[in-house]
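> example.struct
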């Protein structure tokens, strides 16, 4: 679990840096410049360390550079604020692949209720699209505090709630099916 949070922190480091500097200084140019430099430094550090970099790492770097450049050219932070939406849309598209979630499930779940796991995968995809659309809507206001609240509390909370609901529902369904099979 610690690895997951470390990976998330690494993936969102430039956005976190941007947010912190912008909230402290109210200087969009400084915040954006440091966010771009941070993203580039992360990739250089990983390459020097010999780490294998994924497509998503390079895609994230490209987004930071492109959206950061747009932010610098327009002096408008909304471009940087929109970056998480693009990531949510991309993940939502990936989650449209039938059965993607099966490999993340314990064998008892994958073998007992694969159709429910597939449905849950589509529900997760829908959630990513909804969160992405919400991010765009909130980013378009330009209100950084609202955006920070949305990204951390609303989007994060929605994912935690969805995970909890999925866990409970799949557990109940699997238990019910296993009991029915034992009686038969």
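> example.seq
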């Amino acid at each position: 679990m610690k690895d997951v949070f470390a990976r998330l922190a690494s993936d969102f480091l430039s956005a976190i840096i941007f947010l912190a500097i912008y909230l402290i200084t109210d200087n969009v140019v400084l915040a954006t410049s440091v966010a771009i430099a941070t993203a580039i430094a992360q990739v250089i550090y990983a390459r020097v360390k010999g780490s294998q970099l994924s497509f998503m790492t390079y895609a994230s770097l490209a987004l930071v550079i492109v959206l950061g450049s747009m932010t610098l050219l327009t002096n408008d932070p909304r471009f940087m604020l929109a970056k998480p939406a693009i990531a949510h849309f991309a993940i939502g598209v990936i989650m449209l692949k039938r059965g993607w979630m099966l490999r993340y499930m314990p064998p008892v779940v994958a073998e007992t209720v694969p159709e429910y796991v597939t449905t849950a995968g589509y529900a997760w995809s829908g959630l990513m699209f909804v969160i992405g659309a919400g991010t765009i809507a909130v980013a378009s206001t330009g209100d950084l505090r609202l955006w920070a609240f949305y990204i951390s509390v609303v989007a994060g909370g929605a994912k935690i709630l969805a995970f909890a609901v999925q866990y409970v529902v799949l557990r109940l369904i699997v238990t019910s099916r296993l009991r029915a099979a034992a009686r038969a």
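> remarks
The longest helix spans residues 144-183.
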